[in-house]
Amino acid sequence: xxxxxxxxxxxxxxxxxxxxxxxxxxxxxxxxxxxxxxxxxxxxxxxxxxxxxxxxxxxxxxxxxxxxxxxxxxxxxxxxxxxxxxxxxxxxxxxxxxxxxxxxxxxxxxxxxxxxxxxxxxxxxxxxxxxxxxxxxxxxxxxxxxxxxxxxxxxxxxxxxxxxxxxxxxxxxxxxxxxxxxxxxxxxxxxxxxxxxxxxxxxxxxxxxxxxxxxxxxxxxxxxxxxxxxxxxxxxxxxxxxxxxxxxxxxxxxxxxx
Length: 258
Description:
The chain is mainly alpha-helical. It is 75% helix and 0% strand. The protein has one domain (2-253). The chain is built from ten helices and no strands.
C-alpha cells in the first residue's frame, strides 16, 4: 500500500493536473470575492462596469455568513467538476497512456492500487478545499467584510469542508466510470450527466433525497427552501461505498486482455 501511495503521489506531482486544479480553485475564490465586492459596493461596481443597470445580487448579503456560504456553494457546484476530473484523470490515464497492463503486472494487490488512487485523489481534493477556505478568508479580510468572529468563521468553515467531503465521496463514481470505460471519455460523459441530472432533480423538488443534489443543498444554494434529508445523506454514503467497492472489484475481476 505504501508503494502504491508513493507511486500515485509521484504521478500527481509530476503532472499538470495539480496546477490546473489549483488554478480552477483560485478562479473560484476570486469569483466569490468579486461577488462580495459587488454586494459591498454596488455603486462602485456599477461605475466600474461590473454590474449592469438591471442586475442585482439580492440573495447575497455583505456579511461573513453569506460569504462563507457562497464559498461552500462554489465547492459544491464547481467541486463536482474539479474533484470529478481529478478522479477521472487518476484512473483514466492508465488506459490513455497504455500503462494499465503494466500496473496490473506489478507485485502489488489490485485492491491496494485502487485504494491508493482514491486516497491520493481525496487528499488532493481536501487540500484544494483548505486552499479555497484560506484564499477566501484572505480575500474577505482584504475586502473588509463586517462581522468576522471565530464562531462565525468556524461554522462557515465546517459547512464548506462538509460540502467538499460529500462531493469527494460522490466523485468515486467517476473512478468506476473511467475504469469500465477504460479511459477518459466515458467518465467525462458520466460527469456531465451527473451535473445535468442533479440540476433537473433539484428543480423538480426531489433534491433533498437525491445523492448528487445533496452537496449543493447542504451548502445552502437554495437558501432556506430545501435541506437534505437523512435519506439524502445516507444515499451519498451509499454511492461512495458502492462505487469504491465496485471499482476495486472491477480491477480485480475484469478481463484486461483487450
